[in-house]
Each structure stands twice: as C-alpha cells, then as structure tokens.
Design a protein that fits this description.
With about 500 residues, the chain is of the alpha+beta class. It folds into two domains: about 1-55; about 130-135 and about 140-485, Cytochrome P450 (Cytochrome p450), CATH 1.10.630. It contains 16 helices and eleven strands. It has a four-stranded mixed sheet. The structure holds protoporphyrin IX containing FE. Protoporphyrin IX containing FE binds near residues 279, 287 and 423.
Amino acid sequence: MAFTKTTSNVSSTNTASTTILSYFHWSILITLLAVLSILVIYKLVNLLLQGNQKKKTLPPGPKSLPIIGCLHYIVGNKPAFRWMHSMMEKMNTQIACIRLGRVHVITVTSPEVGQELLLRQDSIFCSRPVHMSTEISTYGYLTVRTVAQHYCGNVIRKLMINKRYFGEGMVDGGPGPEEIEHVDSLFKILGYINAFSVSDYLPWLRRFDLDGHEKILRNALENIKKYNDPVIDERIHMWRVKKEKKEVQDILDVLILLTDDSIGSPLLTSSEIKAQILELMLAAVDNPSHATEWALAEMINEPKLLQRAVEELDEVVGKDRLVQESDLSNLNFIKACAREAFRLHPVSAFNVPHVSTADTNVAGYFIPKGSHVFISRTGLGRNPKMWKEPLKFKPERHLNPDGSQVVLSDPKLGLLSFSTGRRGCPGVVLGSTMTTMLLATLLHGFTWTMPPSMVSISLAEAEHDLTLSKPLVGLAKPRLAKNVYPTL
Ligand code: HEM
C-alpha cells in the first residue's frame, strides 16, 4: 500500500512536473511563434507599403536596421551632416539614400542632380517636410560676429516692424539687452533647424524630447514672442479695431492689410502674421552675417585681397561718405568676395529640405514618394569637379571676363547660395544687398589687420556647425574722415 501510495505520489509528482514542463515549452513556443509572426507581418507590411520599390534601385547608402533605419548612425555621429558627407565620400557617390525611420533621406552633392531636382523635376520636389523645428517654428578690436549679426537684426527689424530697439538701446547705436536676447534667440532657432532630430523620423518619440531640441527651441521661441507679439498685437489693433488712417510703413502693415477679396475680410489671422514675421526674420539674419565674417577672416589672411577690395571702394565710393545702395552695382570685386564666401563657407551644410510628392527617377535611381531631399551646399561649393582649388578662397574666379555684374545667386547650382526653382529664396535682392552692404561698409570704414599676438586668423570650422570655430576678432582702424563716422 505504502509502496503503491509512494508510487502514486511519485507518479503524481511526475505528472505535475511534466505538466509544468510542457506548459513551459508551450509558452516558449507560443512566444516564439508570436515574435515570428510579428516579424513576418512587419516584413509583409513593409513589402506591401514599398510595393515594387524593391525592384527599383534606390541610391546607394548605408545598411539600415528594421524600424529605426540608420538613426543609430545619426545619434552616434553628431553632427549628422559631417557623417553624411564622409559616408558619401567613402561610397564615392554624389547621391545617397539614408533611411531614417520610415523616411528615405536623399542627400545630393552634384550640381547636375541638384538641377534635376530643383529645376527639371521642380513640381515633384517643391514641397517641404514638416520637422519639429519648423513647426515650433570699438574702434579698436571688433568681434565681427556680433557686429554682423546685429547689423542683420537691425535691418530686418526695421523692415518688418519699423523698430530698431525694443527697449532703450545704447547711446552709441549698439544693441541693448532686448535686441541681444532677440537676435540670440533667432540664431538659437536657426542652429536647430534641420538638425536631424530623432523625433522627425520616429514621431512617436517626440513626447520624450530625447535630444532636448524641442525644449531649447520652445524657450527661444518664447523669447522672440515676448518682443514681437506686443508690437504685432498693437498694430493689428490700430489697423483693424481703431481703423486709424496711417501710411503703410513696413511689412507688418502690409501683412495686416492684406484682404481676401472674395469676402472682403483680412486675409491673415494674428497667429499667421506672427508666424510670417518670425519666418522672415529667421530667413534674413544668418546668411549675410555668416558670409561676411568668413570673407573678412579669409581676406585678413590675404592682404592682397583686402587691398584690391579697398581700391575698388575708394574708386567707386571715395573717402568722404559711406557706401550707399546705389554703389553696389559697381562693386564687383566686393560681390565676388561675398559670392566666394557663399561658395566655400555656406551657413549650413545642407539646403532647406524638399520632399517628393510622387515616385520618380533621378540620376538613374528610384526616389520614392515622401523622400526628404537634402542638397549639400558644401558638396556643391567645394566640388573638385566644378572648382579648381576648391578649398582656396579665390574671389577673382567669379569676375566675369566681360566685366559684367557679379551676382550672388547661381541658378545652375555651381554653388548653392539662394537655391533655385519655385521654392528658391524669394529674398535674393534683399539678401544680396544686405550681404554686400555689410561687407563693403566694414572694408570701406576700417583698415583690417590681425591682432598683434596672431600670426594668422585660424580658419578652422566649429565642430558642430560651419561657423568659424572662434568668432573673428580683428584690429579695425578707422580709415575715413572723422565726420563720416557719426552717421554709422
Ligand atoms: C544672403 C541672404 C540669403 C540667402 C543666402 C538665402 C538663402 C535661402 C535658401 C538657400 C533658401 C531655401 C531654398 C530652397 O528650399 O531651395 C531660402 C528660402 C527662403 N528665404 Fe532666403 N536667403 C537669404 C535672405 C533672405 C531674406 C532677406 C529673406 C526675406 C526677408 C528671405 C526669405 C526666404 C524665404 C521666405 C524662404 C522660404 C521660401 C519657401 O519656402 O518657399 N531670404 N533662402
């Protein structure tokens, strides 16, 4: 009995452990099957979504992982633009495809492919992707970066909202704390636009703000709104509520007074006007100041270039007055220096992205609908197939043999300054004028040398963007009659 009982105990223990074991096996099997099915479904969905894309050849690019694509490269190799360019160089290609999340990012460094995208297939590539950043959308030593940035800030504030100062300003005409905060915030936003934020490609990660970009952008935006919004609100009130009869004095007035003819009411809401003003302020400040700082740095290292520029200025403007807008058409060498700065030292590695609205073929490769296209500004401007000694600052390469006007734009995309096609920059004239005026005025007003402790100005680029690694500091000695300066 006892034996039997024991046997039966053993047998029941065995049955229990067999049940647990088989249950364990079953659960492993079911988990494995579930994982397998998810992978198969993922693959099938991918194949279905991609349709026959697989049969078509995408531009070459790095191998990508499921779901994240190449985002691990972007996160591990900051700044992304440097990794993208060196990857293209290693692959010896002028067009590449990098999958980020579900998005095909197409990078381009060839002028021919650029023209194909922005001119011949402009209708397909004229849209823009929605990114998080766009949604939030001394007499003596002179630190030229500050001077150049505030010059641009002054011009654009005057044009947009007819204001040089938000506060008291400085007695010498310099920026007050309010203007410093305003301009710094504009540059902060510009620094993070198209920074290849992870959440642009895996939108469900946006709430975590993994790279911290959103917080920085929102803070900068708040700073700008603090100054812009009261001016805009007051002006809207003046025109639309009080209906005062005044002369239109700036772009803000123009935007407020635009009307929808079909219903006779204002075309733009207050938020739309605020967004437009911000966009135009952002669009105007960085390119001219960046190009001018680089041009001056290069020229201080090459005194012959400085001398040639000053000779032109003295011939066209003389020494008894400042440079005026009417002089610019005769300042071809100055414009060549600015154009050379745009070629060699663009403000950003890539153009503002475009998105394709249909499947198409470019340069023999298939480009799927929804791809984000990034044309490389450095890739075009420093392309050795296009330019002799591409890394040398040689403004004379832009002078036309027949002496005709040098212009800062280049629709053939030998360099990408204002871009081209229907999404090309609408501010070519203003942008060219601001850049040439700034560079000409600094060269005309001062004799530039390097500080005595220096042998040459370092032309090293910053690690994370394309600015000079250290803001240019030059010794600026007034070279015009004293009475000319107070009007500065
Ligand atoms: C030297 C100065 C400037 C340069 C080099 C420059 C360059 C550019 C570039 C490369 C683009 C992108 C084009 C593309 O997507 O293919 C652009 C767009 C734009 N620029 Fe400029 N820009 C300058 C000044 C200005 C100024 C002064 C304004 C107006 C106040 C302005 C307004 C705009 C606007 C509104 C866009 C967006 C156009 C669109 O999305 O359709 N820019 N600019």
